Each structure stands twice: as structure tokens, then as C-alpha cells.
Amino acid sequence: MYTLLLMAFSNIQAQDKKNEKVYQFEILTEVPHTDVRSQDRSGTCWSFAGTAFVEAEILRIKNLKLDLSEMFNVRYAYHNKAEKLVRLHGNLNMGPGGGFSDVLGVIEQFGMIPENDYSGRVIGEENHIHGEMDAVFEAYTSAVMKNKNRKLTPVWLNGFDCLLNTYLGSVPNEFTFDGKSYSPKSFAAFSGFQPADYIELGSYTHHPYHEAFILEIPDNWMWSEITNLKLDEMMATIDHALKKGYVVGWDADVSDKGFSWKNGVAIVPEDEPSKFMGAIMDSLAGLSKKEREKKLFAFEDLVQEKEITAELRQTSFNNYETTDDHLMLIVGIAKDQKGNKYYKVKNSWGTEDHVYEGYFFASEAFVAYKTISILVHKEAVPKAVKTAIGL
Fold first, then answer.
1. Is there a domain that residue 5 lies in?
2. At 253, phi and psi to the nearest 5?
3. What is the pLDDT of residues 92-150, one digit of tens each?
4. Which CATH number characterizes residue 97's domain?
5. Close Cβ partners of 151 (under 8 Å, ≥ 6 residues apart)
6. Domain membership of residue 376 as a residue range
7. 64 contacts: CB under 8 Å, gap ≥ 6
């Protein structure tokens, strides 16, 4: 009996240790926003992040909590992308990726619609599963361009729209919300959200600071511009926005080994032995480079993080180490048990069986290092930065 009790107690202790989070976070600032959604098996993070951004802004502007359709943005962005792709003889990315500018552009051109009125799920799936659809769209546009007629028919885009309607559904001209009838454009006007009120920002050394430039990433098929800031200005803008009650749209690299969805954290461990300090230095002493790296990225202890510079950021971008992987929403600022600063990030990978129920915490170093661009309201930009960029 004693042995059984001892075994049971040991199992409980082991389970408690397994469930114990290495990183303990205290939320310092959090901006109101809508619930976590899931993009499921689709490459539409840009629409989920952009829609989450718009919903949070409508919540701030009108105190109105909406569940907007992500697939409305996808449907119209695909239409515009296909037309541009064909005009460019195929020299454009036809994949499912995109950016915040896609969402802003769709709202400006076509409006917005609630999820209940356009879910984009018309062929029986409960989730967004776009593998076949993406392949069909790519094959169709490729066939249009390679046809043997030596010219395009005037109906090829109509055919593409039929495919969009088949896979995502036809968009209703009118729908009812709260007892009133709206079109997508009139609903966008009702929401109070104005795309022209927002600005995309980044930080790079291969373009002049404080000037706009077209961001050279494959998913920027719209050739949209971002305004270039110094690294400290970009970070100050993120902090200023969150503290003033504005969410921040975040385009970033999550393929880096310092990003761990399982553990709900993203970090940039210092990996140069000459820069190790204190307990970190002692714990890594005598280890080989491979052993050191394994320990640094084990997420079993809090680690010393790398100091991020503009040069380090640029080198990583130039070498394809920082890539345009994923768009998300920064909703808050937090600190760990040692006082280190993090940002609370709303993701679009669902909530099931996740340590932070669909959120994760990115360290200040990770955000400084791996940010591709940010989207903010122009009024969320600090005064000094506004002056510098002529806003």
C-alpha cells in the first residue's frame, strides 16, 4: 500500500512538473480584441490577422464586437491577384499568401461582410481546407496564359470568378445585420473603419530611413509600400500604440528555431560564448557548439537573449534567414518572472490543446529581429516619428 501511494505521489509530482510553464508571464498592457480564430489548413494567415486587426479597431472606434468574414477578403484578393498575374505573363506569386494591404485594399474596393453571411465554406468542410482550391487556381491561370490561341479570351476572368464562387461561395449583394439591410460597401461605411487611416512600417538599411518603398517579398503581389523607420523608432511605435489602446498588425518570421508554438514563446538566445553572462555562462561552460545550441533552444530555462541591431536584422533579411512567414496581431505587453519584456500575440492556429489558448509571447529581441512589417493607425505613431516621416 505504501509503495502504491509513493508511486502515485511520484506520478502526480512528475505530471505537475510537466504541466508547469517555464515562462511565467505577467500582462502589463492588453488592448481589447476579438476571439482567436483558426485558419485551419489554408494559407490565409494574412486575412485572419488583417481581419482580427479590423475587428479590434472597430471595437475601439464603435465599441462594436464583430465577427467578420476572412474568406470575403480571400475571394476578392484572389480575383485581383489572378488578373494581375495574367497581365504580368505569370511573373507574380499566385500562391495563397498575402499581406495586410490585401485586407485594406479589399475593404476599400469591395467592403466587408459578417462571417455568418459569408463563411467561405460551401462544400461541406467544417474547416478551411484549401489544398485543392489553391492547386486549381494555379492550374487555371497557368492554362489561360499557355493556351494555343495566342491571345486571351474576354471571358477568362469570368471563368476564374466561377471557380471562386464554387470553392468559396457567391457573395450576397445584401444582407441583414441587427435588423437593417446592408451591402458589403455600406456595411464597411457603417463600421467606421477607414483604410486610409492606417500605415505600414518597417525597418531596413537597404532603403533610406523615413521614406516609403515597395517591400521586396514574394507575397507582396500588390507592390504595396511601407515606410522605413530606424529600429528604435519601429519598436517605440509598437509600444506607443499598445499603451495608447491600439493593436498592432505584425508580419514576421516564425520559421526561426527560436519560435516554439508548443511552448508559446518566441526568443532569440545569445549564441556567442564571448557574450554569455552569469548563470548562462556557467551552465554552458565546457559544452560543444552542438550541445550548447541544443540547450539554448530546449525551452527548459530562461536564457540570455541576443542584442539586436539594425545590421543584424538586415543581414538576416538579406540571407533569407528572416522570411515573410506569418501575419498575426500584437495585443499586449508582458514581462516574465525575471522582468524581461515580451509582447502578447494573437495567432490564427486555433486554441485546442495549446498552452496559452491560441496566444504566444514574443520577446522584445524576437520582435526587433524577426519583424517584416507592422500595421498601425496613424494616430498610434509617436509624435517624433510622425514628424520624421512627414505624417
1. no
2. -95, 120
3. 998 899 999 999 999 999 999 999 999 999 888 889 999 999 999 999 999 999 998 88
4. 3.90.70.10
5. none
6. 17-268+305-389
7. 58, 191
